[in-house]
Each structure stands twice: as C-alpha cells, then as structure tokens.
Amino acid sequence: MPQLTIALIGNPNTGKSSLFNALCGMKARVGNFPGVTVEKKIGRYEDHAGTVTVVDLPGTYSLSARSADEIVSVDVLMGESPDAPPIDAIVVVMDGSSLERDLYLFSQITELEKPILVVLNMWDRVERSGVVVDTRLLSTLLGVPVVTTTANRRVGIEPTKAALRELAIAPFTKNCGDLFPEAFRREIHQLSQWITGQGFMIRRYLVERMVLDEEGLLEERWSRKRRLEQLPQRLQAARQALTVADCRPPFIETKVRHGWVESIVRQVVRRAEVYRLSLSDRVDRVLAHRWWGLAIFLGWMFLLFQGLFLWDVGEYSLTAMIEAGLGRAAVGVESVLPPGALRSLINDGLIAGVGGVLTFVPQIALLFLLVAVMEDCGYMARVALVMDRIMLRLGLNGKAFLPLMTSFGCAVPGIMAARTIESTRDRMVTILIAPLMSCSARLPVYTLLITTFVPTTRYLGGWVSLRGLFFLGMYALGILIAIPVAWILKRFFFPGQPSAFVIELPTYSWPSWRVVSHRVWEQVYSFLTRAGTLILCTSAVLWAAAYFPGDHRRECELASLLEAAEAARSQAGSDQLELELNRERGRLIEASFLGRFGKAIEPIFMAVGWDWKIGVGVLASFPAREVVIATLGTIYSLGGDCDEGSDTLQSQLLAARWPDGRPIFHLFTALSLMVFFALCAQCAATLMTIYQESGSWRWPLFTFLYMTGLAYLGAWLVHQFGRLVGAGG
Amino acid sequence: MGCSTANQSGIPLSRLRLHEEARVVAVDGEAAARHRLEEMGLRVGSRLRLLRRESPAIVAIEGRRLCLRLGEQLQVWVELCPPPSDRLQ
To answer: Which of A227, A498, A600, A608 could link A715 by a cystine bridge, Cβ 3.0 to 4.6 Å?
Structure first.
C-alpha cells in the first residue's frame, strides 16, 4: 500500500514532537480542529514504498473523552473526524524510562483494534541510567512491534519507518486480552445491544468510554440522537449496577489497567535497586527552592526584559531593517501612484498599520524563543512550581503563569498558551486578565511620554534612573490591577474552589534546537496571520475614518509639488512645501469623521486632562495601539512618519496649549495617558483571540468594557490627583 | 511484597520523612484531581518517595517526578514500607 496514514500519540514529555520533526521535518501543516483549541499537525514523509502522512495528536495521559480536546483524539483515531484522514496505524510514543506510566495509554489504544507500533523514545537516557528493558519480551507480551529511538538525536528513525511499512501489511492481533471483569463486560454488552436495537452502529470501545467518562462529551453527543434520549438514564443505571458489583467507574478502569501494566513491567523492566538522587533532583534543590528558586527566576526575568528592549537597537538591527523596508515600499508606491485616495490608503493606512505589527516581530520572536527554550529544557515546569504560591493569591495556580508571562510580549500567543490550563474556570480568568500585562505595543507610548516628561534623574550612584522606575511602574501597574480583577472574576463570575495543582517535572535536558526553532516559527507565523490580518482590516477602516470626508485636492497638489521640488533638489522649496503639506494634513484630519467625532466628545477627554487631538490619537489607537504615535504625528502636523524618538513630536507635545494659553501637557497628563494605555483593551487582535479561545462574544465584549472602564477611571484619578497636587491647570 | 496492609489509616504524605519509601493507601479530593493523579501514576498501591515537603510537594514515583499541592483540596495518605532484607541500601 503506497499511501499510509499514521497517528502519533503519547504522554506529554515523551519527546513526541521530536519524533514528529524527525520524521517529517519542518514541512507540517498546522491548523486547528474547528471548535476546539487542540492544534492539528499533519506532516508527510517519503520512504521507499510511497508517501506516509503523519497526524500528530496532542500529548495526553489517557484516552478518556471528558473534554472537547480529548475527544478530538478519539475521533481522529477512530477515523470519525472530518478534518483528518482515516488512520491506518497508530504509533504510541513512550518514554523508555517510564513504562509504568506510559503503558496505561497503550492499553487503551489497543482497544481501538488498529495496528500499533510502540516507540520507546529517549532511549539514550535509559541506557545511561542503567535500567534494563527487555524489548523483545515486551513486544511478545504486548503483541506489537517495539522500536527504540532517541528522536532528538535522530537515532532509530529509519527502523521506525521500516517497522511502519511492515505494520501496514501485517494483520492486527490483540494480545493483551480482556482486562475488565466479567460484570463490566456484561453491562457494556447489554448497553451496546440496546443502542444497536435503537438502530445505531456503535463500537464497543465507545460504549465503554461513555460509561467510564461520566458527564463526558461522548455521552452528550450520543444522547442527542433521536431514539437515544434514554441514554443518560441507562448509563447512570449501568454505573450504579457496576458500583454495586465492585466495578465503580471511573476507578475500575485505572485499577484494572494499572494492574495489567504492573504485570508487564514486572517481567520486562529491571531497575537498579539502589535509590539515588538524580542530577535533576540536585539541580531542583536550588531551582525549585522556595526562595532561591524564586530569586533566580526573578533575576532571570529581569535580565530577559532588559535584553528584550536592548538587544535589537541601532541602525543594523532587525527592527531598523524592517522599518527601512517599509519606508522603501512606501516610496515605491509613491513613485507608481499619483497622490490620491488609493495611494493614501496603501501608504498611510495599510503599510503604516501592518508595518506597526511587523516592527514588533523581532522582539516577540525573541520572547517566544526564550519561552520555548525554557519549556524544552524542562525549566518551565519549575517556574510553574515556584510561582504557584504567588498565583494562589490570585485564585489561580502555577500553570497560569506562563500565559501571563507570554502576554508581556503579546497577549495573542499568551491567551493561546492558556490552553494548557485544565480547569476551565482558571483558564477563563487567566485569559481575561492577560491583556492587563503590558504588551510590547504599549512600549512606544511609554517611551514617548516618559522621555518627554520625566527628567533624567539618577539615584544610587547612577544605577537606578527615574525614567527606568517609571517604566517599571507602568508594567507593575498592570500586574497590580490584575490581582483584584482576578479576585472579582473568581468570586462573582467563576465561583468554585481553586483547582488542584498537579504537574510533572520532566528531567532536565538540553533543548533540541530543531523543536525550539520549529515552535518559534509556528508561533510567529500564527501571530502574523492572526494579528496581522485583523490589524490590516482595521487599519483600512481607520484610515477611511481619518480621510473622509475632506477635500484632498490641495493636499494632493502640495504633495505633487513637493515631489517635483525634491526631484529638482530645491531644498528651500521642498522645506516650505513640506511645512504647508503637514499643516494641510493636520487640517484634513480635523475635518474628517474621526476628527469631528473627537471634537464632539472632547468633554470626555477634558475630564481626564486631554484635548481633542490627544483624544483622536487615542480613538485611532483602539484597533491597534501601534498606530497612536503616527496618528499623533499627523494631528500635530508633523506628517505621519513620526516615531517615539522624534524630538519634534516631543517638543510639539511640550508646546501644546489650551485655547486660554495653559499648557496641555505636564507630567500628570502624560501619566494619565500612560495609565489609560496600560489598562485599556485596545487591540482587536486580542479581542478576536479571546473570542476564539472562549467560544463566545460575551467575553471579548466583557474584556473591552471592563478594561476601557478601568482605563478611563485610572486616567481620571491620575488627572484629579495631579490637579490636587497643583501640577499645572 | 514486603508491605503489610494490616493497618489502613496511614499518615498524610506531608508528614512523611524525606527520601523514605512509602506506599499510597488513599487519595482524597475532587474526582477530577484524583483521576488526573492516577493517570500520572499516583494511585493506591504505588510506591513513592517524598523529595520536598513545602508546598507544592515533590514526589518521586515510578522514575518520574510529580509536583502537587497538598491541602484541603487534595490529600494523599501513605504508609511506610519497611526495606526488604534482600535490597541493597
């Protein structure tokens, strides 16, 4: 059979992704099974007989179908998922040093009655630790072929491919017999007969799962079919009968399967009897220590953030190159199109908006890289451990930390990372407070305002700068606000006990650069496509609001004249023209829908110490914060290519005055603006991601309302405090 | 295999001495958490050693390291296993 489709399944931390990468390389299609957060990864490789398609299923400890994510694996394996091809064979990936645990899943997989290949991965570790595993005996006892691999070193890959080909032609023999007691099998049989009697074909395995997974999704799905309305009652009756017969679900399953696993392991694994602390344990004495572990982690985080801001600066940095590239694209458009609506749409709307996103990619990619390395080497689990006590105060557990940390780079992947949190309640609370973590897009605003309004005072002999403290303060603000918000969410919206914290600490190992780079690439790509497309659309809409209505003929005239002057290298002429052009643009934005709206609601802005110009800038930054600087530049008649380092924009801000002559901007106005940006939900991409991850429009709407409300309140409080203290008008 | 089952009450896991082998006799808590633990290898009859007491606790079980927060939501009861005479120390 030339075309073969296999599924990869296994416990988490067995190196399954390494195996997938080793088999298929980087050429995998990643997507989402619709309706669930489980990622669909399908890859391909060629061998001597033809093409093999590999479907990578998420790591799972068991095949129970309690959540939507788990049921996807069941559906795919049974060939009943419309989004994946039917499976010819299943590869169960196990950690060679942990058969006692990994065989549990295997015992469930055999019930699917498909050809299986067992891969004992991380074999190098088994050989080093002195544990002896009789793979031949294991293969006989399990009735399936067994290969050993060290996937991250590409050892054992060819034998795996060969074994898969042989598997495809060999028939399936189930060798592990029937594990469950007679009473259990009888109930299942009766139930199956009843369902068949109602006219439905159902496999015995699914009936078993329905009985064992109380309130699971399989039960829900099948109860909705016509003539099966009685199903829930019948299932309950079966469970009660089984409880009486000493076969209480779900514990009967774990008891029976673990008994079987133990009988196999006893014959096949010989462990060194002397118990000794592994190297990992010794390292954990420090890294997982209550205080030292926390101190080390915070120190590492401090370095990481410093690095994030400082690593990519200067003329030859990636960010500069991206900006240069965008600038060249804009110039290119200018040379092709005459001044007019289309050119403005492309340059000022699309390129400006999308460009804003692209310039963040180097920073975000670095954050992803560091997180991926920490995950792959095993340190991330220790971070969850160390942060658990603190997270507990928020009503969450340690697993919520990683999504929140990622949100400091960008909330979109941060919210997606919350999928690892099992408890729905904890997951939702984490998702709803993630946007409060100041993301990279807020940084230009902070930079502009802090460098303009905060003096460069230094303390402690030059080690600590006042400006640095302000930056730190803005980041801390988000965190501090998140604490009461999380408390309120937990108390009123997601009540219940804090969820149990159970996590495995994998052995430390060198990260595999293949796995890490693959993950970073996947995340950056997903960020660009998700955030990017949304920002593109909203930039276009925003451009329209700031462009229409308005007579742009004078502007176009000036722009053409300016180009001619520049071509003729007339310096004085082009300076004068540029000044007039910028002034004209400032006038146009004032007359646009956006400008008019801003002026109309100016009282709302004045209450927090802003004028309509700042208000319009804030409004314009609602879909994506990145555009605020450019918008402010335009409004203050400086043209749209300002950035936060522009002294002209800074001096314009300092010189801005109310009609009566008072300066608009002083420290507290700047602070109120920063506080607004820190707390406001101004990212359509984040709201979209919340919708996708929560499955309902309620939550993005809720997030938008609560954050904008908090932001306005915060800005108002700062402004009032400023007035009290007598700073400025 | 050398562990007596005469007395079932056992002691809470957090009161175990570090690095001593013990056998799980009961797991108390919310069903979902218990089931999760079982799937990860911690169930009645498993042998474990306590590596760290402060919450969250770390136990060594079946060659792996599990980290769990013990308390009102989740409690594990164990009893000591006397070392069999034929084992090396």
So the answer is: A608
